[in-house]
Amino acid sequence: MSKIGIIQDDLFLQHDAGPFHPERKERLISIHEGLRTYSRASQLLRLKPRLATAGELQLIHSPAHIRRIQQTFGKDATQLDPDTVASSKSYEVARYAVGSLLQLIDALFSGEIENGFGFIRPPGHHAEPERAMGFCLFSNIAIGAAYALERYKLSRVMVIDFDVHHGNGTQKAFYQRKDVLFVSTHQFPLYPGTGDFPEIGESEGRGFTINFPLPRGGDDALYNRLFDQIIQPIGRSYRPELILVSAGYDAYVDDPLAGMELTPEGFAGISQSIVALAREVCKGKVIFVLEGGYHLKGLQKSVLRSLDVLSGLGENSEWESSPGFAGILDKSRHFFSPYWKF
User: Fold this and answer.
1) Residue 62: how many other CB atoms lie within 10 Å
2) Taking Cα atoms as reference points, which of 99, 100, 98, 78 lies closest to residue 88?
3) Quick check: is 3 in a domain?
4) Is residue 342 part of a domain?
5) Any idea what the CATH number is for the domain that residue 305 is in?
């Protein structure tokens, strides 16, 4: 029976992007409500968030970027870009968001937990080394990967991003590196406009960025065939020592910000594929971190299904054929087969 480390704290409700902003505190409140009656709650170990230090933020971000976010402290509202707002406590909350992932990583490598899930905000995967964007202030997942590499002397970390929007910030952080394999599935075209097949990395990092730009309407079968038949084999070849997951649930069928058709069962299948890979290549070391997801009930149900999988509940499913998968497979072979077998 797995012991799942979770970070769940009301301090993350203090980041306020405004009354009509989709990235609002009610997202976490919905998850908190689901956790109160979660049937496998006995397997959850609640860890306390901690502040990330300046040095930890600088693993990815420039001092100038960190100062820009710090300067928003105490101000009611600072518009950082057309979509991204910081409130009076956002700088501190964002540091806790980063620190929470680092806390989970430490607990994982100490043996205190077997895997984990950080229920944090603001999200992070759009934040680039030099700028905030797309609701994100600091790149939580990228800092986590860099921290694990440095603190635990790892050689290979795999970051999997199944948010419906491309994780441009994570990609930019590691585009010229091979010690992080970045894999993203996302609707395309859609904000932020990056993440097409030819974006495969540069220099030493060539082949270590893998994007799956998916057409609108992608469903459970398409996503799960993609994970089972392409992403899992690539992960086996890379053999990461840790898997970090940008877990965005905005590919949910009724999400207001996108046009995909995933259900909670589809997210469970994706989670099962990731957890099975982690068990095979890195002794189950995997941590999920919340990114997007803006349909409150869909977010709650889907997150709980991912938790079910982390707790050991679930098995591999046979997914029906998907009309769009053959085209994705062909393009994947064209762009990725020089680097990976699948």
Assistant:
1) 14
2) 78
3) no
4) no
5) 3.40.800.20
| Coil, helix or strand at residue 6 | strand
SS (H, E, C) 235-258: HHHHCCCEEEEEECCCCECCCCCC
The yes-or-no answer on residue 126 being catalytic is: yes
**Which residue's entry shows tokens 């062909």?**
330
In this structure, the dihedral spanned by the alpha carbons of residues 8, 25, 148 and 50, taken in order and rounded to 10 degrees, is -60
Q: How many residues does the chain have?
A: 342
Residue 315 has pLDDT above 80, yes or no: no
> Could you say which DSSP state residue 219 is in?
B
C-alpha–C-alpha distance, residues 214 and 260, integer Å:
9
Domain that holds residue 122: 13-336
The DSSP code for 61 is S
Q: Which residue has the tokens 């068990």?
A: 279
- Band of the pLDDT at 316, cuts 50, 70, 90? confident
Amino acid at the residue 142: A
Q: Per-residue confidence at 322, pLDDT binned at 50, 70, 90?
A: confident
Q: Tell me the C-alpha distance between 185 and 219, whole Å.
A: 12
Separation CA 76–CA 64 (nearest Å): 21
Place of tokens 């030493």: 204
Judge whether 341 and 237 are in contact, CB under 8 Å: yes
How many domains, the chain? 1
The H-or-E segment that residue 309 falls in is: helix 296-310
Q: From the centroid of its chain, how far is CA 318?
A: 25
* 304 token code pair: 């709980």
Q: Is 323 exposed, middle or buried, given 0-12, 13-18 or 19+ CB atoms closer than 10 A? A: exposed
pLDDT of residue 318: 80
Q: Is 175 part of a structural domain of the chain?
A: yes
For residues 272 and 309, the answer to whether their CB atoms sit within 8 Å is yes
Q: Which of 61, 65, 126, 186 is catalytic?
A: 126
What is the DSSP secondary structure assignment for residue 13, as one 8-state letter?
A: G
Question: Whole-prediction pTM value?
Answer: 0.98
The 3-class secondary structure across 281-299, one letter per residue, is HCCCCEEEEECCCCCHHHH
CB count within 10 Å of CB 66 equals 18
